[in-house]
Amino acid sequence: MNEYLLIIHRDLINKESAPSPQQMQDLIKPFQEWIGGIAAQNKLVAPPKRLDTSGRVVKGNVVTDGPYAEVKESVGGLIIVRANSYEEASDIAKGCPILNWGASVEIRQAIPNA
Amino acid sequence: MNQPELLPDLFRSEYRNIVSVLSYSFGIKHVELVEDIVSDTFLSATEDWSLKGTPDNPRAWLYAVARNKIRNHLKRDTLFEKKISKEISTLTETTEEPELDFSVKNIADSQLAMIFTVCNPVNSSESQISLALNLLCGFGVQEIADAFLTSKDVVYKRINRAKEKLKDADIDIRQPLLEEIPERLPNVLMTLYLLFSEGYYSASQNRILRRDFCDEAMRLNMMLIDNKLTDTPATKALYALMCFHASRFNAREDEMGETILYEDQDDSRWDKDLITRGSYFLNFASVGDEVSRFHLEAAIAYWHTHKEDTLEKWTRILDYYNHLLVLEYSPIAALNRTFALSKVRGKEVAIIEAEKLQLTDNPHYFSLLGHLYTGINNDLARSNFQTALNLVSSPTNRLTILRHLNKLSKNPNA
Predict the structure, then answer these.
(1) Range with the largest mean pLDDT of B63-67, B202-206, B208-212, B241-245
(2) Do A36 and B356 touch (CB under 8 A)?
C-alpha cells in the first residue's frame, strides 16, 4: 500500500462559485461520512485539514496576499489516504461530496522510501 | 463458625488494601514477600476465628496481624533486614519497626500508587490486566485462568513475568505527579477498559466471576474519579461507558445462561439506576476540548440505552462512529459504523460500503453482510452467514448465526 495525498481544489477567487453558509452546513454531514468511510477501511493516514481562504505567497523576497492568485482553483483541503494504486485512490476521491460543488480533487502518490 | 460469609468478603476488600499498603511501603522488589505475608494473615484469620470466634473489629485484627508478621519477618531475616532497613528507616525515621499506616487516606493513596504501577506500559496490556486482577482486585490465579479460558500455569507465569519486568525496570510505587498524568493516565484508563471488557465479553461461562470483573473495573475507575489528580473528563467518560454497558448485564442472558441479543432484550430489565448514573457522569465528562475515544464510545452506548429505533438515534451513532474511526481504527468500529449507516441510509448503500471493508478473516464481517443482504438477496445472505459460521469460534456467536440462518429458511421472503 502506498500513501496518496488528496488535494481538494476550489475556486476561491470567483465570489459566485463560493458555497453559501447553508450549503457549507449541508456539506458537513456528507463530508464526515466520506471521511468515516475511508477510516472504516483503515485507509485514512491523516485526517482532513481544512484550509482558510486568505493565505500568503512568498516568492523571492516578496510576500503577497492570497492563495496563489494566478490559479483559479486554490487548495481548500488536504487528506492523506492509503491505497494500492492510483485507480483505488481515485475511487476514494470520487466519494468527496465537495465534487458536487465544482471542486476537483488532485491525487498525488507519495514516493515510498527506498 | 459464625458469619461464614464474613471472611470471603473481607478477603475481597482487605487483601488488596493490605497488599497495597505494604507494597507502597516496601516497594515492588518485595511484592512477593508482601503477598505471602498477606496470604498468611488470612490463613491465620481462618484458623484463629474458627476457634475463638470473629474478633470485634476484624479489619483491625487483620492489620495488626499483618503488621506483626512483617515485624517477625524483619527480626528473623537478617538478609531481608539489611536490604530493606534503609528503605524502612527513610519511611518511618523514628522507629526501627515499620509503622504501617492503615488509615483510609493511606489505603487510598497506596491503591492509586499501585494502579499506576500495575498499569505500567513496560508490560503488555494482557499482562497488565492479569496483574491488576491479581494485585489490585485480589482475584486468585485460578479465577483469572477461568475468565481467560486458559490454564492456571499460563496465568501464573504471566503474572510472575510481569512482576519481574516491573522489578527489572525498577518501577517506584508512588503517586503519579501532576505533570505525568497526561502521559500516564490514558494507559491506566485503557487497562481498566480492557478489564471491564474482559468481564463483559468473556466467553467464560462463569457469570458471577465476569460480573465481579466489571464491578472491579468500575470500582477502580471510581477511585480515579475520587482523586483530583486523575479525575479528568476522559476518566468520567469511561465510567459512563461502563455504567451504560453494565445496565444491560442482567437483561442479556436468560435463565439458562444463553445470550439474549440486544434487539430481543426486555428493556424493562435494563438497570435504570446505572443508566442514570452513566448519564450523570457523561454530562460532567463533556467539559473542555478533549474528545477521547471513551467520550465517543460512551455517547454511542448512551444512545443504545434507548431501545426504540429512531432516525435521530442512528444518525448520532453514525456520527460518533465516523469520529471514532478517525481517532482510532478498529475492525469492530468499522463494522458497527456500517451497521449504523444501514439504519440511516438504507441497506443498499451500506452493502456497498460494507464490501469495501474486506475483513475476510472476521466472522462478524460476514454476519454483517448476511444481515444486510437479508431481504435484498437472501441467497447471498445465506452464503454470507454460512461463511461466518465457518469462521466463528465462540459458541455464543455460533448460536446467533444459526438463529439467523434458521430465520432465513423459515421465511425466505424476510
Answers:
(1) B241-245
(2) no
Determine, for residues A41 and B326 on separate chains, whether the beta-carbon distance falls below 8 Å: no
Nearest C-alpha neighbor of B292 from the set B178, B187, B176: B187
Q: Tell me, what DSSP letter sits at residue B364?
A: H
User: What is the set of domains in chain A, with CATH numbers?
Assistant: 2-109 (3.30.70.1060)
Q: What is the rounded end-to-end Cα distance, in angstroms, of chain B?
A: 62
SS3 A45: strand
Q: Which pairing describes strands A73-83 and A2-11: parallel, antiparallel, or unpaired?
A: antiparallel
- Give me the pLDDT at residue A80, please: 96
Contact B323 A32 (CB under 8 A): yes
pLDDT tens, B60-115? Answer: 999 999 999 988 887 776 555 555 655 555 554 434 556 789 999 999 999 999 99
SS (H, E, C) A4-34: EEEEEEEECCCHHHCCCHHHHHHHHHHHHHH
- Tell me what the pLDDT averaged over chain B comes to: 89
CA-based nearest residue in chain A for residue B332: A40
Joined grid coordinates for residue B408 = 432465513
CB distance B333 to A17 below 8 Å:
no
Q: How far is it, in rounded angstroms, from Cα B64 to Cα B41?
A: 9
Pairing of strands A62-65, A56-59: antiparallel
**B331 φψ region: left (φ > 0), alpha (ψ -120 to 50), beta (else):** alpha
Name the percent of chain B lying above pLDDT 90: 64
